[in-house]
Amino acid sequence: MTNEQQSIRVNLCSSGKEKPQADQLAFGRSFTDHMFVMDYTEDEGWHEARIVPYAPLMIDPSAMVFHYSQSVFEGLKAYLNDDGEAQLFRPQRNFKRMNHSNDRLCIPPIDETFALKAVKQLVSIDKDWIPQAEGTSLYIRPFIISTEPFIGVAPSRHYQFMIILSPVGAYYEEGINPIKIAVENDYVRTVKGGTGEAKTGGNYAASLKAQEMAEEGIAQVLWLDGVERRYVEEVGSMNIFFKINGQVITPALNGSILDGVTRNSVIRLLQHWNVPVEERKISMDEIYQAYQEGTLEEAFGAGTAAVISPIGQLVWQEHMEINDGQTGAIAKSLYDTLTAIQYGKIPDPFNWIEKV
Ligand code: COI
């Protein structure tokens, strides 16, 4: 039986948890009533798909994930449109990327069609947890952990695939106002051939030290390539774009940069608007020179959690103020258009929306 034919056992029971107030929503602090779980063993493959009440897990302390971090995750969101329907944004790309990460981490692939069915069923069960206030949504976190009780270094033979849901507001304290980021000069996030392109927890664990050492007020650090330490890669939780002299540029995917769904959507939108956009190597020297010449017009990040996040200040050699610290016109148009598509307020010419 393929996963696609498998049915999902459902055990509904509300925890009676209070829903967080929509105007006080932090990012990722509260979770809905239910979660999706599915097991993997070598003999049975992925099996026993179920939606059960959200609860802590019972897991062996020797489970391999605790020791060697064989795990992957994804992030996408569900939005409520004006007709009260829940809708997802390009979810197929997330499950495709999850399988790419699985491959890198030696985790067995999931059936992408079945995973989408599971997300839809889970979101429709907890639909009344989707917040309605502007800028809020239901963040969806699919993840896989290695669960075999064994402390030898080898790919695990048992896994759990889970999906949890979290009603969220803005990712950054600054909301959609410009943030300040600093170029990281001491630590590296990854190198080509490493795991940078995979969405795995270890990449984020490795990033924490630099974030902690960064000066007060820095929302995130900007990673440079791990070899020459010259070329821009990505920010902690998002991809990065610059606008120089009318042209938008973003680092080309090189094996160590995450292939962001929002990154791809930004490129597609800019092309659709006939705004020149290029994916290529970008050195910090080039950015600094553009700043000194007055041609660095905008910088912004793009990610599922962060949406479009304007960068008002970039620290490298000096504190570079970009666009007088204000949100630039391109970042604003991208934010307005992307969110309008996501919330179903304007037509979706790209067929990005998947109704639940
Ligand atoms: C996302 O944007 O969904 C991410 O996974 C980034 C982050 C919250 C780690």
From TrEMBL:
Pathway: Amino-acid biosynthesis; L-isoleucine biosynthesis; L-isoleucine from 2-oxobutanoate: step 4/4; Amino-acid biosynthesis; L-valine biosynthesis; L-valine from pyruvate: step 4/4; Amino-acid biosynthesis; L-leucine biosynthesis; L-leucine from 3-methyl-2-oxobutanoate: step 4/4
Entry keywords, A to Z: Amino-acid biosynthesis, Aminotransferase, Branched-chain amino acid biosynthesis, Pyridoxal phosphate, Transferase
GO molecular function: branched-chain-amino-acid transaminase activity
Top-rank taxon, per record: Bacteria
InterPro entries (UniProt xref): Aminotrans_IV, Aminotrans_IV_CS, Aminotransferase-like, B_amino_transII, BCAT-like_C, BCAT-like_N, BCAT_family
Record-listed E.C. numbers: 2.6.1.42
Reaction(s) catalysed (UniProt annotation): L-isoleucine + 2-oxoglutarate = (S)-3-methyl-2-oxopentanoate + L-glutamate; L-leucine + 2-oxoglutarate = 4-methyl-2-oxopentanoate + L-glutamate; L-valine + 2-oxoglutarate = 3-methyl-2-oxobutanoate + L-glutamate
Cofactor(s), names only, from the UniProt record: pyridoxal 5'-phosphate
Family: Belongs to the class-IV pyridoxal-phosphate-dependent aminotransferase family.
PANTHER family: BRANCHED-CHAIN-AMINO-ACID AMINOTRANSFERASE (PTHR11825:SF44), SUBGROUP IIII AMINOTRANSFERASE (PTHR11825)
Family annotation (NCBIfam families): ilvE_II, PRK13357.1
Protein name according to UniProt: Branched-chain-amino-acid aminotransferase
Organism: Lentibacillus kimchii
